[in-house]
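2024-03-11 09:14:02 INFO queue: dequeued item DUF3447 domain-containing protein, len=453
2024-03-11 09:14:02 INFO validating residues
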Amino acid sequence: MSDQDAHPNKYSELRSNYKYYIDICNTLYQLKTEKEEDLNSIFKMIKSELIDSNGYPPQNMIRAILNLVLYNNRYAKSYLSLAKQISDEYHVKEVSNVILISNFLFYKEYGIKLDKSDDFEKGDIKNLDIHTENTIYKATMNNDKENFIIFTERDGFDKDQKLESDLYPYSKKGYSLLELCCYHGAVDCFKLLRSKFNSEITKTCLEFSFLGGNPEIMSECLKYQKPDEECMEYAIISHNIDFVTFLMNEYNIEIDLEYCGIYNNLESFLVYFDQTNDINKCFVYSPIFNIPSFLEYFLSHGANINEKDENGETALHKSAWYNSKEAAEVLISHGANINEKDENGETALHNAARNNHKEIAEVLISHGANIDEKNKYGETALHKSAWYNSKEAAEILISHGANNDEQDENGETTLHIAANENHTEIAEVLISHGANIDEKKLIWKNRTSYCSK
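2024-03-11 09:14:37 INFO prediction written
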């Protein structure tokens, strides 16, 4: 065993310590109920065991729940209801980085726009009514073979039709009926399409089979397609540990720690740790979960506080990127280098600014982050906020003395970038704080409005 090896019972110990988190997340990702009493019970479990007892931020919980709609859209209303209960209980009015479709559905259902940065009033949301009664997509979702057959026997039925809908993960070409069967685990409809139309089993079919979770569909797909990293991603999303270990053991596909964090799959993360004993790598990704004691575990077993991943990012970079404020505070208290740079020369503050994580930005600045530190392209954190329209982060940076007129390697200031990207609100913030208006460099379509202020 290496010096980094933790004791041999680490998996059991950690699995036991974080059983509350694992069980709640498994329940959410595998949700199969619309009953009010069931949802109330889940809410109470989240409230008592995750938020109240262990300090998990309500905003992070709401974001995690709403972002599940893409992967289990049959129960979209259940996720919306749970998010609303949490927002009401903890008076949450704003949540950043909610996927567009969930933000829109929440607004449509409750009249509340949680992620203010989204502009869905433009009407570019596609096909939200596909699961209404009397559609083939409703029949697919419910594995309703009888009605599915009726649709396939109608004049003009197109066996090769593709669906483009924002209720499903993004696809340029849309999804075939067989792929949708795999997503929903609709085995009877799947068999009918295969026997009657010889519908093609695609790479997406196999990927979605790990999400839909039907063993017969998965077995059939494996005859025609070989699993890859995308399959592992969907296995991680499914929160079915058997699928994850199957891909790991049978196809030698590595568990992706970043996906484990993004999709709240701590159990798969622990399996990776148990198999590899790689304390430093696990430590770098552990802040995504935002569980302070989890970071403390790795630090107590010798993790390097400034360890980097393949892109040169430290655990503090991850904290800033994923808005893990509590994790950032733990790291800083243990001496993490606040101004450490990744391979692009970016600090954690660049990450916070890019993603409009104003609280993380405050924490970093208050502990000595260099506010005008530049990446290898000469961009400061304020430049990042201009590129990504991060208004609140920009206001924080400016209030702490960030230089409005700092130039990148191309001589561009933050105002030039905001104007070029047509980010009007952040441009107004910059101007109101004295940004130098260089008319010659402002893009033509915005020159008049900015120069007249």
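2024-03-11 09:14:37 INFO annotate: Residues 136-225 form a domain with the Serine Threonine Protein Phosphatase 5, Tetratricopeptide repeat fold (CATH 1.25.40.20).
2024-03-11 09:14:38 INFO item closed
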